[in-house]
Protein backbone atom coordinates (compact mmCIF):
# COMPACT_ATOMS: atom_id res chain seq x y z
CA UNK A 1 0.00 0.00 0.00
CA UNK A 2 1.53 3.34 -1.06
CA UNK A 3 2.19 5.91 1.66
CA UNK A 4 -0.32 8.76 2.11
CA UNK A 5 0.98 12.20 1.11
CA UNK A 6 0.07 14.48 4.01
CA UNK A 7 0.81 17.66 2.01
CA UNK A 8 -1.49 16.58 -0.82
CA UNK A 9 -4.27 15.72 1.66
CA UNK A 10 -3.91 19.07 3.39
CA UNK A 11 -4.17 20.89 0.04
CA UNK A 12 -7.37 19.00 -0.80
CA UNK A 13 -8.86 19.85 2.59
CA UNK A 14 -7.90 23.53 2.18
CA UNK A 15 -9.49 23.65 -1.29
CA UNK A 16 -12.70 22.13 0.05
CA UNK A 17 -12.77 24.58 2.93
CA UNK A 18 -12.09 27.49 0.57
CA UNK A 19 -14.91 26.33 -1.73
CA UNK A 20 -17.33 26.01 1.21
CA UNK A 21 -16.36 29.47 2.43
CA UNK A 22 -16.99 30.94 -1.04
CA UNK A 23 -20.39 29.25 -1.16
CA UNK A 24 -21.35 30.63 2.23
CA UNK A 25 -20.05 34.09 1.29
CA UNK A 26 -22.18 33.99 -1.86
CA UNK A 27 -25.25 32.87 0.08
CA UNK A 28 -24.67 35.63 2.64
CA UNK A 29 -24.31 38.28 -0.07
CA UNK A 30 -27.49 37.15 -1.83
CA UNK A 31 -29.41 37.04 1.47
CA UNK A 32 -28.14 40.50 2.41
CA UNK A 33 -29.16 41.82 -1.00
CA UNK A 34 -32.67 40.35 -0.68
CA UNK A 35 -33.08 41.77 2.84
CA UNK A 36 -31.84 45.17 1.64
CA UNK A 37 -34.33 45.19 -1.25
CA UNK A 38 -37.20 44.24 1.07
CA UNK A 39 -36.24 46.94 3.58
CA UNK A 40 -35.90 49.50 0.79
CA UNK A 41 -39.32 48.52 -0.56
CA UNK A 42 -40.93 49.02 2.85
CA UNK A 43 -38.96 52.17 3.67
CA UNK A 44 -39.58 53.77 0.27
CA UNK A 45 -43.00 55.10 1.34
CA UNK A 46 -41.36 56.58 4.43
CA UNK A 47 -38.81 58.35 2.23
CA UNK A 48 -41.66 59.73 0.12
CA UNK A 49 -43.34 61.11 3.25
CA UNK A 50 -40.04 62.74 4.20
CA UNK A 51 -39.92 64.32 0.73
CA UNK A 52 -43.50 65.57 1.14
CA UNK A 53 -42.57 67.12 4.48
CA UNK A 54 -39.55 68.75 2.85
CA UNK A 55 -41.77 70.23 0.11
CA UNK A 56 -44.13 71.77 2.66
CA UNK A 57 -41.13 73.17 4.53
CA UNK A 58 -39.71 74.56 1.27
CA UNK A 59 -43.05 76.27 0.63
CA UNK A 60 -43.06 77.93 4.07
CA UNK A 61 -39.45 79.09 3.74
CA UNK A 62 -39.98 80.27 0.16
CA UNK A 63 -42.97 82.37 1.23
CA UNK A 64 -40.98 83.64 4.20
CA UNK A 65 -38.11 84.64 1.88
CA UNK A 66 -40.51 86.58 -0.34
CA UNK A 67 -42.02 88.40 2.64
CA UNK A 68 -38.55 89.24 3.95
CA UNK A 69 -37.44 90.63 0.57
CA UNK A 70 -40.53 92.83 0.34
CA UNK A 71 -40.58 94.10 3.95
CA UNK A 72 -36.99 93.70 5.26
CA UNK A 73 -38.43 92.37 8.52
CA UNK A 74 -36.68 89.87 10.76
CA UNK A 75 -36.59 86.25 9.64
CA UNK A 76 -38.58 84.91 12.59
CA UNK A 77 -41.40 87.43 12.02
CA UNK A 78 -41.55 86.56 8.32
CA UNK A 79 -41.73 82.84 9.04
CA UNK A 80 -44.54 83.35 11.58
CA UNK A 81 -46.47 85.35 8.97
CA UNK A 82 -45.76 82.68 6.35
CA UNK A 83 -47.01 79.76 8.45
CA UNK A 84 -49.80 81.55 10.29
CA UNK A 85 -51.01 83.37 7.18
CA UNK A 86 -51.22 80.13 5.24
CA UNK A 87 -53.37 78.42 7.86
CA UNK A 88 -55.54 81.51 8.30
CA UNK A 89 -56.08 81.78 4.54
CA UNK A 90 -57.03 78.10 4.30
CA UNK A 91 -59.40 78.47 7.23
CA UNK A 92 -61.08 81.53 5.69
CA UNK A 93 -61.47 79.78 2.34
CA UNK A 94 -63.03 76.71 3.92
CA UNK A 95 -65.29 78.88 6.07
CA UNK A 96 -66.57 80.92 3.12
CA UNK A 97 -66.81 78.02 0.69
CA UNK A 98 -67.44 75.15 3.08
CA UNK A 99 -71.23 75.24 3.14
CA UNK A 100 -71.54 75.77 -0.60
CA UNK A 101 -69.05 73.02 -1.40
CA UNK A 102 -70.67 70.58 1.04
CA UNK A 103 -74.06 71.19 -0.59
CA UNK A 104 -72.61 70.69 -4.04
CA UNK A 105 -70.82 67.51 -2.95
CA UNK A 106 -74.14 66.14 -1.69
CA UNK A 107 -75.78 67.05 -5.00
CA UNK A 108 -72.92 65.43 -6.91
CA UNK A 109 -73.17 62.19 -4.92
CA UNK A 110 -76.92 62.05 -5.64
CA UNK A 111 -76.63 63.03 -9.29
CA UNK A 112 -73.62 61.03 -10.42
CA UNK A 113 -75.23 57.52 -10.42
CA UNK A 114 -78.13 58.82 -12.55
CA UNK A 115 -75.61 60.61 -14.77
CA UNK A 116 -73.64 57.41 -15.30
CA UNK A 117 -76.85 55.58 -16.26
CA UNK A 118 -77.67 58.28 -18.80
CA UNK A 119 -74.15 58.09 -20.18
CA UNK A 120 -74.51 54.33 -20.65
CA UNK A 121 -77.78 54.86 -22.55
CA UNK A 122 -76.15 57.40 -24.85
CA UNK A 123 -73.10 55.17 -25.39
CA UNK A 124 -75.38 52.30 -26.36
CA UNK A 125 -76.53 54.38 -29.31
CA UNK A 126 -73.09 54.23 -31.00
CA UNK A 127 -71.02 51.17 -32.08
CA UNK A 128 -67.88 52.40 -30.30
CA UNK A 129 -69.84 53.06 -27.11
CA UNK A 130 -71.33 49.56 -27.18
CA UNK A 131 -67.85 48.04 -27.50
CA UNK A 132 -66.62 50.06 -24.53
CA UNK A 133 -69.60 48.98 -22.43
CA UNK A 134 -69.08 45.34 -23.42
CA UNK A 135 -65.44 45.60 -22.37
CA UNK A 136 -66.36 47.13 -19.01
CA UNK A 137 -69.20 44.65 -18.44
CA UNK A 138 -66.86 41.64 -18.64
CA UNK A 139 -64.40 40.47 -16.04
CA UNK A 140 -62.17 43.36 -17.11
CA UNK A 141 -64.20 45.70 -14.90
CA UNK A 142 -63.25 43.68 -11.82
CA UNK A 143 -59.62 43.75 -12.88
CA UNK A 144 -59.81 47.51 -13.39
CA UNK A 145 -61.34 48.03 -9.96
CA UNK A 146 -58.71 45.83 -8.31
CA UNK A 147 -55.93 47.69 -10.12
CA UNK A 148 -57.40 51.05 -9.13
CA UNK A 149 -57.66 50.05 -5.48
CA UNK A 150 -54.06 48.86 -5.36
CA UNK A 151 -52.93 51.87 -7.42
CA UNK A 152 -54.39 54.37 -4.96
CA UNK A 153 -53.39 52.53 -1.77
CA UNK A 154 -50.78 53.80 0.65
CA UNK A 155 -48.69 52.18 3.35
CA UNK A 156 -50.25 53.64 6.52
CA UNK A 157 -53.50 55.03 5.12
CA UNK A 158 -54.20 58.53 3.88
CA UNK A 159 -54.89 60.11 7.27
CA UNK A 160 -51.84 58.50 8.86
CA UNK A 161 -49.63 59.71 6.02
CA UNK A 162 -50.97 63.26 6.27
CA UNK A 163 -50.41 63.24 10.04
CA UNK A 164 -46.78 62.12 9.66
CA UNK A 165 -46.10 64.52 6.77
CA UNK A 166 -47.40 67.52 8.73
CA UNK A 167 -45.24 66.70 11.74
CA UNK A 168 -42.18 66.25 9.55
CA UNK A 169 -42.92 69.57 7.85
CA UNK A 170 -43.13 71.31 11.24
CA UNK A 171 -39.76 69.89 12.32
CA UNK A 172 -38.08 70.74 9.01
CA UNK A 173 -39.52 74.26 9.06
CA UNK A 174 -38.58 75.02 12.66
CA UNK A 175 -34.88 74.21 12.28
CA UNK A 176 -33.85 73.36 8.69
CA UNK A 177 -30.13 73.96 9.28
CA UNK A 178 -30.05 71.13 11.82
CA UNK A 179 -30.99 68.56 9.17
CA UNK A 180 -28.99 70.22 6.40
CA UNK A 181 -25.80 70.30 8.49
CA UNK A 182 -26.47 66.71 9.60
CA UNK A 183 -26.47 65.53 5.97
CA UNK A 184 -23.35 67.53 5.15
CA UNK A 185 -21.48 66.01 8.12
CA UNK A 186 -21.85 62.60 6.47
CA UNK A 187 -19.86 63.87 3.47
CA UNK A 188 -16.01 63.87 3.45
CA UNK A 189 -14.37 67.22 4.14
CA UNK A 190 -13.15 67.66 0.55
CA UNK A 191 -16.72 67.16 -0.79
CA UNK A 192 -18.55 69.51 1.58
CA UNK A 193 -18.61 72.47 -0.88
CA UNK A 194 -20.13 70.16 -3.51
CA UNK A 195 -22.72 68.98 -0.96
CA UNK A 196 -23.71 72.59 -0.22
CA UNK A 197 -24.02 73.27 -3.95
CA UNK A 198 -26.20 70.19 -4.56
CA UNK A 199 -28.53 70.96 -1.63
CA UNK A 200 -28.92 74.60 -2.73
CA UNK A 201 -29.68 73.54 -6.29
CA UNK A 202 -32.25 70.98 -5.15
CA UNK A 203 -33.91 73.60 -2.93
CA UNK A 204 -34.02 76.03 -5.87
CA UNK A 205 -35.60 73.40 -8.15
CA UNK A 206 -38.21 72.38 -5.57
CA UNK A 207 -39.17 76.02 -5.03
CA UNK A 208 -39.63 76.40 -8.79
CA UNK A 209 -41.80 73.30 -8.97
CA UNK A 210 -43.94 74.50 -6.08
CA UNK A 211 -44.41 77.96 -7.59
CA UNK A 212 -45.54 76.58 -10.93
CA UNK A 213 -47.76 73.93 -9.37
CA UNK A 214 -49.55 76.24 -6.92
CA UNK A 215 -50.22 78.91 -9.52
CA UNK A 216 -51.47 76.24 -11.95
CA UNK A 217 -53.91 74.90 -9.34
CA UNK A 218 -55.28 78.37 -8.57
CA UNK A 219 -55.63 79.36 -12.22
CA UNK A 220 -57.32 76.10 -13.20
CA UNK A 221 -59.77 76.49 -10.31
CA UNK A 222 -60.65 80.09 -11.21
CA UNK A 223 -60.94 79.56 -14.98
CA UNK A 224 -63.00 76.36 -14.66
CA UNK A 225 -65.29 77.91 -12.03
CA UNK A 226 -66.06 80.76 -14.42
CA UNK A 227 -66.38 78.55 -17.51
CA UNK A 228 -68.56 75.85 -15.90
CA UNK A 229 -70.69 78.53 -14.24
CA UNK A 230 -71.32 80.20 -17.59
CA UNK A 231 -72.30 76.81 -19.07
CA UNK A 232 -74.70 76.25 -16.11
CA UNK A 233 -73.05 72.93 -15.23
CA UNK A 234 -74.26 71.52 -11.89
CA UNK A 235 -71.81 71.62 -8.94
CA UNK A 236 -69.36 73.75 -10.93
CA UNK A 237 -67.45 74.82 -7.80
CA UNK A 238 -66.78 71.24 -6.71
CA UNK A 239 -65.69 70.21 -10.20
CA UNK A 240 -63.29 73.17 -10.43
CA UNK A 241 -61.89 72.47 -6.97
CA UNK A 242 -61.42 68.79 -7.80
CA UNK A 243 -59.61 69.69 -11.03
CA UNK A 244 -57.35 72.14 -9.22
CA UNK A 245 -56.41 69.56 -6.59
CA UNK A 246 -55.80 66.86 -9.20
CA UNK A 247 -53.41 69.26 -10.92
CA UNK A 248 -50.92 67.88 -8.39
CA UNK A 249 -50.84 64.79 -10.62
CA UNK A 250 -49.52 65.92 -14.01
CA UNK A 251 -51.07 64.37 -17.14
CA UNK A 252 -53.23 61.73 -15.43
CA UNK A 253 -54.88 64.09 -12.93
CA UNK A 254 -56.24 66.37 -15.64
CA UNK A 255 -57.77 63.42 -17.48
CA UNK A 256 -59.36 62.01 -14.32
CA UNK A 257 -60.81 65.42 -13.36
CA UNK A 258 -62.45 65.86 -16.78
CA UNK A 259 -64.57 62.68 -16.53
CA UNK A 260 -67.20 63.84 -13.93
CA UNK A 261 -67.52 67.24 -15.62
CA UNK A 262 -68.23 65.70 -19.03
CA UNK A 263 -70.65 63.16 -17.51
CA UNK A 264 -72.64 65.92 -15.82
CA UNK A 265 -72.65 67.96 -19.04
CA UNK A 266 -74.20 64.97 -20.81
CA UNK A 267 -77.30 65.42 -18.64
CA UNK A 268 -77.86 68.73 -20.44
CA UNK A 269 -76.94 67.78 -24.04
CA UNK A 270 -74.26 66.13 -26.12
CA UNK A 271 -73.12 69.49 -27.52
CA UNK A 272 -72.71 70.82 -23.99
CA UNK A 273 -70.57 67.80 -23.09
CA UNK A 274 -68.34 68.43 -26.13
CA UNK A 275 -67.97 72.12 -25.22
CA UNK A 276 -67.11 71.24 -21.60
CA UNK A 277 -64.51 68.68 -22.73
CA UNK A 278 -62.93 71.27 -25.03
CA UNK A 279 -62.98 73.78 -22.16
CA UNK A 280 -61.08 71.36 -19.90
CA UNK A 281 -58.53 70.62 -22.62
CA UNK A 282 -57.95 74.29 -23.56
CA UNK A 283 -57.60 75.48 -19.95
CA UNK A 284 -55.28 72.62 -18.99
CA UNK A 285 -53.17 73.15 -22.12
CA UNK A 286 -52.81 76.90 -21.58
CA UNK A 287 -51.91 76.52 -17.91
CA UNK A 288 -49.56 73.54 -18.36
CA UNK A 289 -47.69 74.68 -21.48
CA UNK A 290 -47.66 78.48 -21.16
CA UNK A 291 -48.25 79.72 -17.62
CA UNK A 292 -46.40 77.05 -15.63
CA UNK A 293 -43.13 77.16 -17.67
CA UNK A 294 -43.07 80.97 -17.37
CA UNK A 295 -43.43 80.81 -13.58
CA UNK A 296 -40.92 78.01 -13.15
CA UNK A 297 -38.53 79.88 -15.45
CA UNK A 298 -36.76 76.66 -16.42
CA UNK A 299 -35.85 75.94 -12.79
CA UNK A 300 -36.88 72.38 -13.51
CA UNK A 301 -36.64 71.14 -17.09
CA UNK A 302 -37.80 67.53 -17.41
CA UNK A 303 -38.79 65.81 -20.69
CA UNK A 304 -42.55 64.96 -20.73
CA UNK A 305 -41.96 61.29 -21.65
CA UNK A 306 -39.61 60.91 -18.68
CA UNK A 307 -42.25 62.47 -16.42
CA UNK A 308 -44.90 59.96 -17.53
CA UNK A 309 -42.52 57.01 -17.04
CA UNK A 310 -41.63 58.26 -13.57
CA UNK A 311 -45.32 58.61 -12.67
CA UNK A 312 -46.16 55.10 -13.85
CA UNK A 313 -43.21 53.63 -11.96
CA UNK A 314 -43.88 55.58 -8.77
CA UNK A 315 -47.60 54.84 -8.94
CA UNK A 316 -46.86 51.12 -9.16
CA UNK A 317 -44.48 51.30 -6.21
CA UNK A 318 -46.22 53.71 -3.85
CA UNK A 319 -49.72 54.56 -5.05
CA UNK A 320 -51.09 58.08 -5.23
CA UNK A 321 -48.36 59.60 -3.04
CA UNK A 322 -45.76 58.28 -5.47
CA UNK A 323 -47.60 59.81 -8.43
CA UNK A 324 -47.81 63.22 -6.76
CA UNK A 325 -44.12 63.23 -5.79
CA UNK A 326 -42.82 61.65 -9.01
CA UNK A 327 -41.83 64.97 -10.62
CA UNK A 328 -39.91 66.48 -7.65
CA UNK A 329 -38.24 63.12 -6.98
CA UNK A 330 -37.23 62.86 -10.64
CA UNK A 331 -35.87 66.42 -10.48
CA UNK A 332 -33.75 65.51 -7.45
CA UNK A 333 -32.39 62.41 -9.21
CA UNK A 334 -31.53 64.42 -12.34
CA UNK A 335 -29.72 67.06 -10.28
CA UNK A 336 -27.72 64.40 -8.43
CA UNK A 337 -26.75 62.70 -11.70
CA UNK A 338 -25.76 66.03 -13.23
CA UNK A 339 -23.68 67.20 -10.26
CA UNK A 340 -22.07 63.89 -9.28
CA UNK A 341 -21.59 62.26 -12.68
CA UNK A 342 -22.09 64.46 -15.76
CA UNK A 343 -20.09 67.46 -14.53
CA UNK A 344 -17.36 65.15 -13.24
CA UNK A 345 -17.01 63.47 -16.64
CA UNK A 346 -17.02 66.89 -18.35
CA UNK A 347 -14.25 68.16 -16.07
CA UNK A 348 -12.16 65.06 -16.84
CA UNK A 349 -12.62 65.60 -20.59
CA UNK A 350 -11.58 69.25 -20.26
CA UNK A 351 -8.38 68.19 -18.51
CA UNK A 352 -7.54 65.32 -20.90
CA UNK A 353 -8.26 66.95 -24.29
CA UNK A 354 -5.49 69.61 -24.14
CA UNK A 355 -2.93 66.92 -23.22
CA UNK A 356 -3.86 64.88 -26.30
CA UNK A 357 -3.53 67.92 -28.55
CA UNK A 358 0.12 68.44 -27.62
CA UNK A 359 2.71 67.36 -30.25
TrEMBL record:
Membrane topology: Multi-pass membrane protein
Chain ranges passing through the membrane: 23-40, 46-64, 76-97, 151-173, 217-242, 248-266, 273-296, 308-337
Major location category of this protein: membrane
Pfam families membership: AI-2E_transport
Subcellular location: Membrane
Keywords per UniProt: Membrane, Transmembrane, Transmembrane helix
Annotated GO CC locations: membrane
Keyword check for Membrane: yes
GO BP term, example: transmembrane transport
Family: Belongs to the autoinducer-2 exporter (AI-2E) (TC 2.A.86) family.
Protein name: AI-2E family transporter
Organism in which the protein naturally occurs: Mucilaginibacter ginsenosidivorax
